[in-house]
Amino acid sequence: MTAKEYNSAVDMYADNVFRFVMKHIKNEMSAQDIIQEAFMKVWIKREEIQAEKVKSYLFTTAYHCLIDWINKEKRSGDIEKVENNLASASSLEFDVSAVLDQALNRLPEIQKTVVLLRDYEGYNYAEIAEITQLNESQVKVYIFRARQALKGYLKARELVA
């Protein structure tokens, strides 16, 4: 990949990758750090990456940087900060977006990741499998279970509201 192709990839995918990371951690500064680290890693490996596969490589790298960040926060004892970032929506809000964010934040990390990649970013099962290093069957199972959990949570909220 050339420098021009790299710059084009930054322009095309930076917002999508940022949105993906923000859905996980709800902390803009940390998300920017994670994105910067992901793009730096892509820049370092630019000669090994094919331009047509840069989007997948970016999301894979950002995903791994995100997991590293979460693990580092947990090890440093700031687990409360991570959990607060992961569950920032107010329980009194009835806004659909906020309720959906709450529901997403209740999912296990891998289920949340595959749902975000599939439903928010539009990746197909094979691409998600490549990004998360799962097989397609596992991806389908995680998406199914996540959607079932989301459905159950939203139905329960409907009864309470």
Describe this structure in words.
- The chain is mostly helical and 161 residues long.
- It has two domains: 1-88, Rna Polymerase Sigma Factor, Chain: A (Orthogonal Bundle); 90-161, Arc Repressor Mutant, subunit A, CATH 1.10.10.
- The chain has eight helices and no strands.
- The protein has helices at residues 3-25, 28-44, 54-75, 79-86, 96-106, 109-120, 125-132, 136-160.
- Helix 1 (3-25) runs antiparallel to helix 2 and helix 5 (96-106) packs across helix 8 (136-160).
- The chain is globular.
- It starts with a helix and ends with a helix.
Comma- or semicolon-separated keywords:
161 residues, mainly alpha, Rna Polymerase Sigma Factor, Chain: A, Arc Repressor Mutant, subunit A, 0% strand
* CA radius of gyration: 17 Å
Mean model confidence by pLDDT: 81
What share of the residues lie within helices?
Answer: over 70%
Q: Give the number of DSSP strands.
A: 0
How many strands, which pairing sense, and closed or not: the largest β-sheet?
none
**Total number of helical segments?**
8
Task: Write down the oligomeric state.
Answer: single chain
**Outline, from the CA principal axes?**
globular
